[in-house]
Every structure is written in C-alpha cells, then in structure tokens.
C-alpha cells in the first residue's frame, strides 16, 4: 500500500506544478486561446460599432437642440443674465455690487 500512496503524492505534485504554469502546454489549449482571442476581438468590434451608432444619434440630438436654440437667440446668449456681460436691464452688473 505505501507504493500507492507515494504514487498519489507524485501525481498530486505533478498537477500542482502544471497548475502553477499559466502558459498553454498543448496545441489544443493554444488553439482554444486563439479562439477566445478572436471572439474577444469580434465582441470589441461589435461594441465599437454600437458606440459609433450611439455617437451619431447623440450628434443628431445635439444638432436638433442647437437648431431650436438658434431660432430664439435671446434664450441662449446671456443678455438678460445679471452676472453676465450682456446689456440687460442691470447693464451686466452683478446684483451683489449694488
């Protein structure tokens, strides 16, 4: 029986040595790593395409808001703001200065 126990310990030691080596040891593991890498690249490409689409939609929304704001220039130029440099009722002065 002691020889069986020694063989078990030897197998366990060999498995520990293999698990501590992170590099692929067989062609099968290497090919699986390449498949995983290819899948990751496909996922990254799909995410990039989705982000590009989202960016163009956001640009369209921004252009829409900008064109609406351009129809009423008084709404965005800050002329009526008390702390601004406009020519509003207070002459562009801050109310705290009074």
UniProtKB/TrEMBL annotation:
Chain positions covered by the region annotation Disordered: 1-37, 68-98
Coiled-coil stretches noted in the UniProt entry, renumbered to this chain: 37-64
Keywords, comma-separated and alphabetical: Coiled coil
Coiled coil recorded as keyword: yes
Biased composition (Polar residues): 16-31
Name of the protein: Uncharacterized protein
């Amino acid at each position: 029986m002691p020889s069986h126990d020694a063989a078990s310990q030897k197998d366990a030691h060999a498995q520990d040595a293999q698990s501590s080596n992170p590099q692929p040891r067989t062609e099968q593991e290497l090919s699986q790593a390449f498949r995983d890498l290819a899948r990751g690249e496909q996922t990254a490409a799909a995410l990039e395409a989705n982000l590009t689409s989202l960016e163009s939609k956001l640009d369209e929304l921004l252009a829409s808001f900008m064109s609406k704001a351009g129809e009423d220039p008084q709404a965005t130029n800050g002329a009526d703001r008390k702390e601004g440099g406009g020519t509003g009722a207070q002459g562009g002065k801050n109310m705290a200065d009074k």
